[in-house]
Amino acid sequence: MTKIIYGSSTGNTEEAAMLIRKHLDENIDVIDVTNASREDFEEADKLILGSSTWGEGDLQDDWEGFLPTLEGLDMHGKTVALFGLGDQEEYPENFVDAMGILCEKMKEAGAQIVGFTETEGYDFDESRAVNEEGKFCGLALDMDNQEELSEERIAAWTAAIKDKIL
Q: Which residues contact 157 (CB under 8 A, 6 or more apart)?
């Protein structure tokens, strides 16, 4: 079973979550992290997690409050894809850091991360979401400065992960 769990303060991350579901499978459960439980993570064998980045590279507030619920969670045998929203013009030094934070937490818990994407086409200085190979650990979206590219990026990313996440 696959679930999409997201945290959204302005509605952009929720919109992205719904577009991801539309491109993958309309029957996937989409859960706002404020309504999520530890059981949602334990029951699902595949998860798509999304968060916007706030302030100086912080997780979205609802995710920040939810993280203690995941302490000690065993994610071995589970597949996780990530998406993150950020503003590369206003915050180029921590673009989509929240996605990187979620990636670190899931890797520490033993999850297999899928859905890495190229950093080409973005203009930022640093990001916790960029791995050792120079790729984002998931899908990076900038609804403030590149909204016109978002649905195209979502369509390409979901097509690339479909066989791994459904």
A: 20, 83, 115, 117, 139
